[in-house]
Amino acid sequence: MGIADDAVEVRAHGWRTLAALHGFIEAVLERDLTSAVQLSVVEYTVLDALGRQDGWHMRMQQLARASALSPSATTRLVNRLEERDLLTRVLCADDRRGIYTELTTEGHRLLDAARPVHDAALARALDEARTVPELASLVDALPQLSAQPA
Q1: What pTM did the predictor assign?
Q2: What region, left, alpha or beta, does residue 9 occupy, with left being phi > 0 and alpha being psi -120 to 50 degrees?
Q3: Contact at 8 Å (CB) between 61 and 86?
Q4: Buried b vs exposed e over 66-87: b needs ≥16 C-beta within 10 Å?
Q5: Which of 9, 110, 118, 141 is paired with 47 by a 20 to 30 Å CA distance?
Q6: How do residues 44-88 score in pLDDT, each as one tens digit?
Q7: Do 57 and 93 meet the contact criterion of CB atoms below 8 Å apart?
């Protein structure tokens, strides 16, 4: 194996470690959010993204990026959340083709109930992941990553 092969393997190992940590955290979040507030992780992600808009709304494309979903998957998810009266769609006044999505009162209420469940599950998942030797260094690096300018 040459130097280039070693570099590829290091990157691949890093990617596998990151994917393992993500899966580890997501499983804990999914279990806790589903059992406590009947939300999936991706549903929580959408409500959280909308809730951080300070009373504003997001275009569907922005929501797709925030939730890491395809446009069609985002549309299906928004349809389900709209059926549950957690969000609503609003036509853009400036551009009739534009559709915004915003939280309803019920969506805000559920997000307020879900946020502490999410935060506690995330903290617990990170603490548990820190005990796994392959994941510990990545967990320890997370605070430094959030300090980096976006």
Answers
A1: 0.85
A2: alpha
A3: no
A4: bbebeeeebeebbeebeeeebb
A5: 141
A6: 999 999 998 876 788 888 899 988 999 899 999 999 999 999 999
A7: no
